[in-house]
Write a structure and sequence with these properties.
The protein is 35% helix and 23% strand. It is of the alpha+beta class. Strands 1, 7, 8, 9, 10, 12, 13, 15, 16 and 21 form a ten-stranded antiparallel sheet that branches. Helix 5 (355-371) packs across helix 8.
Length: 600
């Protein structure tokens, strides 16, 4: 296959895979609201809210013992904690989070910080608990709230439980949240303290289920934001499992994990149990839909509680999906929680076994950025350098096609002569290649190298966090992580949306010109039919135009500059090939004069 064909196949595969993975979710069925064993056996105590708290131990005990100015409420009430990085709002209904804004990361659609507690409803909230398994409804009882200080808040409620022998026991459920002023991690302590009759919590093999938010921000429209996605991620301690979420999913991840969560392209929520051995399955869900917006959620199940008193601790990372903010949790001295060896960087989207190439490319681009602090120019310079580095290989391959064209008649003759003897055909073909000085493998090398670099560059430019909000050209390309725009329509065009974008048009024109120049240079490949050439020249660029129309600007800048560089290089190669053809013609004529054809 010629180079254009390979590019088309590779890009089609990559883009179509990403496109199919984020198709719009249409009217998924809602989960059954059947009453479970846990719901029927656990009930909130109907005593006065000012009831005394049982003697709690560990850190939670010091919070609630001998408290003053205790806040008591029998109605739903909200509470807010604000740090340097986040603004978080809690409800005393269940002691859950209903609002989680990242103050340092802007959402262009809302004009506020990125909202990480998205798609919240009365039945689903961030850090909500449900007694028993993943299908049970969350706890919706009113809790007593206590604001301990500017960065710490607690909620508690006493519940009664019907035991298997018919007796009734009671226990107090405490949820305490602790934040640090300058950190994306917060800590959630879940404390259960039972009375003398309390036998523990075991509802068909599960004590309780802890949830992430029903969705994470920024809010996106799957029909337009085709380069956005949602992933479930679980890390075993050795490697991370990433599952791109599709439509109407509700599946269990039944392997051991050190942490798990939900990630978007640029932001993520990860839950790190302090004692991962206490956890069983974790579920990932896109099943529930609220306001025509499907959820993307992880539900973590806690093993049965047999003791009369337990304290579980969970660390939540709610923030950017970038290396700078994630790697500090590998070294205890670098973060406020003294967490170490978490390997949260395993949640990053990489090129798999090609990630080392992506690391090198990122290092080069960041080096360029230090000299020229503009990410758009850094992309252009890096692309130019890569194309210049690849030019000798590309030139050698293009000139090699002339040799292939020269020996093609002999190849055809051999194929006809030894059509019934494949072994002899291979031997004679190898001999012909050797005599002509042609190596067929050399033609594959540039395609393989370009494919490898393309794949790494695609992942880098499509997911690099620093491109988010990075201005390149005011009024045209204000954000390298999204499509450019010169005009917004009052209506939406199928497959294109409501923006007029110039970069995809420039990319289309450059691709058409490149195809024409390649054809004129005679490098379209031996045996390529006119129909195939027309498809490559016109069909594929137009096809890519629609697929890439809403692609991130950084990605399109790379592809467009790459095309422009290839056009310039191809013009040079065409001139070299013309000279080489003339030399080969003269050499062939000279051989014919020296060795005239034998008379018959």
């Amino acid at each position: 296959m010629d180079k254009n064909t390979v590019w088309a196949i590779v890009l089609s595969t990559i883009v179509l895979f990403g496109f199919m993975a984020v198709q719009t979710v249409f009217f998924p069925p809602k989960p059954s609201a059947e009453k479970t064993a846990a719901e029927s056996s656990v009930s909130a105590e109907k005593t006065e809210e000012s009831q005394s708290i049982p003697s709690l131990k560990k850190e939670t005990a010091s919070v609630f013992d001998d408290v003053k100015d205790q806040e008591v409420s029998s109605t739903e009430k909200n509470y807010t904690i604000t740090t340097d990085r986040v603004k978080v709002t809690f409800t005393n209904r269940g002691g859950d989070i209903i609002y989680y804004e990242l103050l340092n990361h802007h959402d262009n659609k809302t004009g506020k910080g990125v909202q990480m507690a998205d798609n919240i409803s009365a039945d689903d909230r961030l850090a909500a608990l449900s007694f028993g398994g993943e299908k049970n409804q969350i706890i919706n009882d009113i809790f007593t709230a206590k604001i301990i200080n500017d960065y710490k808040i607690g909620f508690y409620r006493k519940f009664s439980l019907k035991n298997d022998d018919g007796s009734v026991s009671s226990f107090t459920l405490v949820k305490q949240y602790t934040f640090e002023p300058d950190d994306y991690v917060f800590k959630l302590d879940v404390f259960i303290d039972g009375d003398e009759n309390f036998k523990g919590l075991d509802f068909q093999g599960t004590a309780y289920t802890l949830r992430t938010s029903p969705q994470i921000g920024p809010h996106f429209d799957k029909s337009i934001d085709r380069y956005e996605n949602r992933q479930f991620i679980a890390y075993s301690g050795e490697k991370a499992k990433r599952i791109t979420l599709g439509t109407n999913q509700f599946k269990a991840y039944d392997k051991d994990y050190k942490w798990a969560g939900i990630a978007g392209k640029y932001f993520e929520t990860l839950v790190i149990p302090e004692s991962s051995g206490n956890m069983e399955n974790v579920y990932y869900s896109t099943l529930t839909e609220v306001n025509n917006y499907a959820n993307a959620q992880a539900l973590l199940l806690r093993n049965p509680v047999k003791a009369s008193e337990i304290q579980d601790t969970y660390y939540f990372y709610v923030g950017p999906r970038n290396e700078k903010d994630l790697k500090i949790y590998n070294v205890s001295d670098l973060n406020k929680w003294n967490l170490s060896d978490l390997k949260l960087t395993e949640s990053l989207q990489t090129s798999g076994f090609l990630s080392w190439i992506e690391t090198i490319l990122k290092w080069l681009m960041e080096l360029i950025y230090k000299v020229i602090p503009n990410w758009g120019l850094s992309i252009i310079i890096l692309t130019v350098l890569l194309k210049l580095a690849m030019f000798p290989v590309t030139k050698k391959t293009s000139l090699g096609t002339l040799k292939m064209q020269d020996i093609q008649p002999k190849m055809t003759a051999l194929q006809e002569k030894y059509k019934d003897n494949q072994q002899k055909l291979q031997e004679e073909t190898a001999k012909l290649y050797k005599e002509a000085g042609y190596n067929p493998v050399s033609g594959c090398l540039p395609m393989i190298v370009q494919f490898v670099i393309l794949f790494a560059m695609y992942n880098l430019f499509n997911n690099y966090f620093e491109f988010r909000g990075a201005l390149f050209i005011p009024g045209w390309i204000p954000d390298l992580s999204s499509g450019d725009s010169v005009l917004t329509f009052g209506f939406s065009i199928p497959f294109l949306g409501n923006h007029l974008r110039l970069l995809p048009i420039i990319y289309l024109i450059s691709q058409l010109f490149f195809g024409k120049i390649t054809q004129n240079g005679g490098t379209t490949g031996v045996g390529t039919s006119k129909t195939q050439m027309n498809i490559m020249m016109y069909g594929m660029p137009i096809f890519f135009f629609f697929l890439f129309y809403n692609a991130p600007s950084g990605l399109l800048i790379y592809w467009t500059v790459s095309n422009l560089m290839q056009m310039g290089q191809q013009l040079v190669i065409n001139r070299m090939m013309a000279q080489k053809k003339e030399e080969m013609r003269i050499e062939k004529s000279s051989r014919q004069r020296t060795y005239p054809p034998k008379k018959r």
